[in-house]
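Notes continue from the previous slide.

Worked example: a multi-chain complex. Inputs as given:
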Amino acid sequence: MKLSLLLIFLLFCIGFYGLCVGKTVIKSVFNLIIAQTALLLLFFQLAYTPNASPPILDHGTTGLWVDPYPQALMITTIVIGASITSLALMFSIKIYHHYGTLTWKKFMHKD
Amino acid sequence: MNAMPLLFIFLPIIIALLIYLIHRPWISVLGFLCQGFLSIALFFYTRFVQLTGAHDIIVGPWSKTIGVGLRNDSLSLSFLWLTLIFWWVLLAYIWSYRKEDYKFLFFFLFLEGTFMGLLQSNDLFNFFIFIDITTILSTILIIYEKDGFAIKSGVYYLLFNSVGMLFYQLGFIFLYSSMGTLNMSLLAERLALVPHSPLIRFSFLFFMVAVGVKSAVFPVYNWLPKAHSAAPSAISALLSGLLVKSGLYAFLRIRTLFAFDFMNEFFFFLGLFSALSGVAFALSQKDLKQILAYHTVSQIGLIVMGLSQPNTLLYLGGIAHLMNHALFKALLFLCAGIIIHHYQKRRVTEIRGVFHTMPFISVAMIIAMISITGGFLTNGYISKSLLTYGLAEKSGWIRLLYQIINLGTMTSFIKIAQIFFGPALPDRRQVNPGQWIAVGALSFACLAIPWIYEPLWAGFGVQLPHISLFTPQKFLILCLQGALGIGLVRWLTLKEPKMVRNIRHFQIGFGVSNGLMLFFLLLMIAAADLI
């Protein structure tokens, strides 16, 4: 539990560090996905119950079920994340056609 | 009545889909019909909520802990009315040149549905979903013209706001793992019972980072001037008037949810600094829409300053200024859009002779300018007076800074006022009835609100104190500020100190602004005294 939380924290830090120093739009998008994945893992990890059965009605009656709510929320977050990613990648194509570069510093200073 | 909140979300979306799919000139009229129907429905729904109190529904046969909850109280109803008015005005404004642009109408009406969903949602997760969809749709509308500046501002806006929403996700993950629900009414009950553990406090701070990014406060406002000046004018008005308020709405909701008051002073100073820096940047700009966008930052700062002190006069001033700012900033952007479209120039120093070329638009713009500076007989006067009276208990230098912010606002609008003078253009503008109706309606609202604000606000359950519409002291201060402002404008335009030029070309890159977001979080952790 402790170790996995530490790893998730590291993953988030890698993503956010990449967002702070990433030089191109593509790298920013990738790092955004990495940070988002860390959050998904965090939610699953926090909702995890040891020795519990899956939340399906006729699957067994041990009495202890995994909370299905986080999974339902995270699938929606994944969908939203995918749409943001695809939109940002589409924009990066447009930016490349327009400015000939994807480096933030270069195209932000051009008119 | 139970299905009413769903109607406000899904009717605009269905109409948007119909317009996009059927693709015939006559179908666009459905947009107006939808607006009319929604207005009637909202009128009866408001009466219903006023009679029965806050209206709570759960979509589907689920329990309150996990179901999708929608809730309407007087705050969300006032925002719903504002949304509806905005879409009426903007539909009239864009009608003449967008009525056969089905793609634009699709995104435009879809945005109305999702924004209404955002306002009604009673569930932190749905709130997140609606904020994200609103961000995506408004990005598409920002880059709609597909010129270079719009695309790079659009991608900056999209990515930076998504990074901000990462913190929102962290916030609700922490909150769910400690409280076991995301329904706001249940959370408010449960949070009042338990002692606030570090996990809960951290989740509050993470929410506040996301809210700060969405509402563009001090260190993280860099996306706003880019996005708001790059969008088509109608969309700029929408973004600056209404969509940026989604962050402030979240600020109000989440702060009432947690009921923490140890951060009040911090938010007060945060608002003060964003107001000051917004004005400082606005003074150095030359682009008409950039100036207006930076003034949005400074006005948001004033609103945050007001909203940070619950149960005071300052809070009422903040709420009133929130609504009034929506009206006059939209009016400013719509007028600026008409002027820029006609002149094909964006620089304040190059546009001349607007008053003789388009007298009606000029009068409307002057009304909005008086309103934003807090001049007499306009709606800005009411809310700025409330803020001034609220600040009376604060120390002297805060009041001085507030007056300096006002002076800065005055100065940069005197700078904009240069565009009215000079000879008329040879080609007069063709009359465009839709745009005239939109501009006229907004200026009428700006002028009418000072006379009817008390019953208007009482309808939404807020008792505003009576403000005398004319005091000699205020008049003196405004005259003094005006005179100082004229002097400052002459100095700024004739001499143009090197510092002004440096501020104008000051750019913050995407990576650095993410670093600033982290800095903002650390600042709040330090202010909350958590470690």
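Summary box: The mean pLDDT of chain B is 91. Residues 111 and 134 of chain B are 6 Å apart (CA to CA).
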